[in-house]
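Dear support,

Our group has been running a series of protein-ligand predictions, and this particular one with adenosine-5'-triphosphate is the one our PI (initials K.S.) wants archived with full inputs and outputs. We had some confusion internally about which version of the output was final, so please treat the block below as the authoritative record. The input we submitted was:
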Amino acid sequence: MTPKYKRVLLKLSGEALAGSQGHGIDFDTVMDICRPVKTLRDMGCEVAIVVGGGNFWRGRSSGKMDRTRADHMGMLATVINALGVADGLEQLGLSVRVQTAIAMQEVAEPYIRNRAVRHLEKGRVIVFGCGTGNPFFSTDTGAALRAAEIEADIILKATMVDGVYDSDPKKNPEAKRYEELTFMEVLNQNLGVMDMTAASFCKDRGIPWLVFSIEDPENIVRAVSGEAVGTLVK
Ligand SMILES: Nc1ncnc2c1ncn2[C@@H]1O[C@H](COP(=O)(O)OP(=O)(O)OP(=O)(O)O)[C@@H](O)[C@H]1O
Ligand SMILES: O=c1ccn([C@@H]2O[C@H](COP(=O)(O)O)[C@@H](O)[C@H]2O)c(=O)[nH]1
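Confirmed final output from the archive:
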């Protein structure tokens, strides 16, 4: 099968890694998500992954804590997830490198753009941890930034909803799903499925997003094969 995209940035929801337990990492679920990633590699696709941290910690939900410190905790949570995903991919025989935006050399490589591109060219999957490396941002913005730097063709946002709706479908059962929309519409309607910094950045850089549900991990393969899945934002 020929992939529609040569180089993809897969943004994995942290929450998705928790499976039915709702918190932390369920390793069977991690493996379910890693298998389609191997299929992408078998199809000849170059794959970089940014993992969220919502299964452990989100700085914006930290309440009374100092926000910067809370965001540092969130970024560390994304590293736990990145290591878990890397382990799952390696168990499937893939060559994998973890790169973090905050240096922790004993654990992972530091993020070096040219090195990341080289890994991709050599067929290695890269898992990026720590998002942008800065507080007050999110892993959506981290995904947008890395996608621009490595010149990914698209960002695949594999998340807990099956696309972009005109309001949050978890709060409004009447919400209607879009098949396609523009970043301008996401921004004007303040649609919370991705953060506004990421939407604005990708609008300027011309990097499309495909937002789809990770509940069925095979959607990752469908997305790269060009099948109709989720919502395309461009
Ligand atoms: N208009 C909308 N359309 C679709 N989903 C929306 C909308 N507004 C808000 N959401 C919410 O956005 C969520 C997805 O983004 P969210 O940032 O919460 O998770 P994530 O980026 O996938 O990763 P993590 O779980 O690591 O935080 C959905 O679960 C959904 O409830
Ligand atoms: O660039 C970044 C990326 C993330 N954070 C912190 O990590 C958590 C988890 O990321 P999610 O995107 O919410 O899954 C986030 O809530 C922030 O607290 C960050 O500070 N900077």
